[in-house]
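Long-time lurker. I teach an intro course on protein structure, and each term I like to show students one example going from raw sequence to a predicted 3D structure in token notation. This year I'd like something fresh instead of my usual example. Would anyone be willing to generate the tokens for the chain below so I can use it in lecture? Attribution to the forum is fine with me.
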Amino acid sequence: MTSVQVDNHAGDEAGGNTSQEGYERGLGSRQVQMIAIGGAIGVGLFMGAGANIAKAGPSIILMYALAGVVIFFIMRALGELLLYRPVSGSFAEYAREFLGPFFGYVTGWTYWLMWIVTGMAELTAAAIYMHFWFPEIPQWVSALVFLVVLFGVNLISVKIFGEVEFWFSMVKVTAIIGMIVIGLGVLTLGFSDAGDTASVSNLWSYDGIFPNGIGSSLMTLQGVMFAYLAVELVGVTAGESEDPEKTLPKAINTLPWRIIIFYVGALVVILSVVKWTEFSAGQSPFVHAFEKIGIPLAAGIVNFVVLTAALSSCNSGMYSTGRMLRDLASNGEAPQALGKLNRRRTPAVGIAVSVTLMGIGVVLNYIVPEKAFGYVVSVATAAGIWTWMMILVSHIRYRSAVDAGRLRASSFPAPGGALFSWVALLFLIGVTGMVAFDEAGRISLYVAAVWALGLAVGWQVLKRNNPRVVERAAQREYAAKSD
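-- Reply from a regular --
Happy to contribute to a lecture. Here you go:
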């Protein structure tokens, strides 16, 4: 990959612990593992699940399981590409190599947009959770404070980011397991205020598993897919992992267990303890379940956990946007200033620009606090689905090249080869089509159209002002195929 200007002092300090992109390989195995786990546990589960339960009833469990299978296909496709060529700008780089420079450009900027709007969603959720303790504090004030604090964390070093994300994820994992254990205790021993009504039969006793029809359940897939955004973040860490050959496959292979425990398992327990008709949009099902059980202190603890989940995702968003902007700059697809590393080998300028735009979320919390979360969720999901599609199409093209003997095989091949990538791709296309029938999510299609037009215009301007962008991309593609 064409490199950008990197601070010489930073490079000297890093020595042999610096990746080819100039980053410090400061993320150890335990940090990458917990980043992968944290990516699968976000505000989409803790907050968005409330609205999804209200729409789909108990069938929401099946929707999360179905989406989880597709996500695993996507991640194994990504894993094969990562072990073929581990780079920090993974999705955009693979799109450039296998689909052409334009698709790399679009994928990089769209993934950046996904994290910008996801950061807005997380800030919104965090501000809402603060109302649990401090209802008098305006939503926008809390969002602004969290934005500034996390910006500081991301500027220090990748090691600090990894450590903060490790403990954020540890809190989430511990809390969900604790919630499952307590819920199972209520179901088996019958203690607490919810003991008399808690039963596994709650999953089908109130108008069945599909109380609002299968169509209504399928329409929740947009929100369900949002819950899985960030699982691909492990790919962005490839350029800063100490031993990507070992840590990345392990992180990806544990994904099914994370989905079974943290999504399917947690929702089965919650909907057995509390009947689905009691949940509503804007309400955390985890907090409501503990309130129903009658443990006020536990409800406060869970609220702290879901606050942590929101801040964790926002923290990851700042990390990934800075890296993606640097990848774009290194390929001449963004201003060169965004590609510079500071003395701590972090893309400070790119992070600062991203954080500034995330501040739009603070404005939304001031103008339309009751609608801010829904708006940004729909846009983030559309951007995330595009990124996943590019991973799958790149994987399909890669496998074709391997089968033809043009490229070396990866040490981490995806099961089923390109077949499962085709299945996942068709699923994502179907989810995209459903968005057109969802009034709340339709705004994402309008934003996508405007975004696509802006990218198309930007590409034409880029080619005219910097024609070597396409030439360099072609040279890199040829070099990769000749490797």
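Some talking points for your students: Residues 287 and 299 are 5 Å apart (CA to CA). The radius of gyration is 22 Å.
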